[in-house]
Design goal:
By secondary structure, the chain is an alpha/beta fold. The protein has one domain: Trna Endonuclease, Chain: A, domain 1 (3-Layer(aba) Sandwich), CATH 3.40.1350. The chain is about 35% helix and about 35% strand. The chain has a 6-stranded mixed sheet, with helices on both faces. β1 and β2 form a beta hairpin. It is globular and about 35 Å long.
Length: about 110
């Protein structure tokens, strides 16, 4: 449990730095949010630009298949990217959702 929380915090800090940099450079009006609905489905991170979804990110330790909540919100919000970041694993593509190992994702952002 502690490792999972630390991993989520690592991803959160990198996303926050990315959002702050984009805002500082004047690329848009970006925000980093958390998504949850009344049925308690949740995705760890949502990056928006001018209140429009751009990037959904779910952080997991090892799941190679996208979480049901990520699939649900990706279908409804239709962000440009929907990514599940895994601590260890391989790159996989599930329709519009990508599962990326952390080293690749963090190098990308």
């Amino acid at each position: 449990m502690i490792i999972e929380v630390r991993f989520e915090n690592l991803v959160a800090l990198h996303l926050l730095k990315l959002v702050d940099a984009w805002n500082d450079y004047g690329y848009g009006d970006y925000a980093l949010l958390y998504v949850r609905d009344r049925e308690k489905r949740e995705v760890d991170f949502l990056v928006t630009d001018r209140r429009r979804p751009v990037l959904l990110v779910e952080a997991k330790l090892s799941d190679s298949e996208p979480s049901p909540a990520l699939r649900y919100f990706a279908e409804r919000l239709r962000p440009k990217w929907a990514i599940q970041v895994v601590r260890r694993g391989h790159t996989r593509i599930w329709g519009a959702i990508r599962v990326l190992p952390a080293e690749r994702f963090l190098a990308w952002i």
